Amino acid sequence: MKQTKRSGASLFLIELLLGLLVFAVAAAICIRIFAGAYQISSQTTALSHAVTIARNTAEAVRAGHEAPQAGYDAQGMPTDGDAAYRVTLSETPCSDGLAEVQVAVTDAAGSELYRVTAVKGEGEP
Q1: Model pTM?
Q2: Are 90 and 81 a contacting pair, CB within 8 Å?
Q3: Were both Cys, which of 28, 30, 37, 50 would link to 113 (CB 3.0–4.6 Å)?
Q4: How far apart (Å, rounded) are the C-alpha atoms in residues 46 and 39?
Q5: Which of 119, 115, 112 is CA-nearest to residue 96?
Q6: Percentage helix, strand, coil, to 5, in the chain?
Q7: CA–CA dist 55, 62 (Å, integer)
């Protein structure tokens, strides 16, 4: 009986394939994590812009300045063109000559991102 010597090449190829499989799974997991982080970052940026826009509008209302309903671009700057954010104001009279103003910021799709309440005097614009 003759014994044949097996080549180590087949074992090396199997080990190489298993290494590639582990690497591919790890890469897929990392890509998914980075995609999720990017989505969360985009949502956080939109919320940050909405909070800034709403607070600035509420302060203008409190100070008695005219705060028209306006559109803002993706960086939070006022625009007359395509608006990434839209501000709406709704005023409710309260007692003691005060009015409660709700400042709501929505995105281009119309979903509300942030809402804040400001109180102003009735005689103010």
Answers
A1: 0.72
A2: no
A3: 50
A4: 11
A5: 119
A6: 45, 25, 30
A7: 10
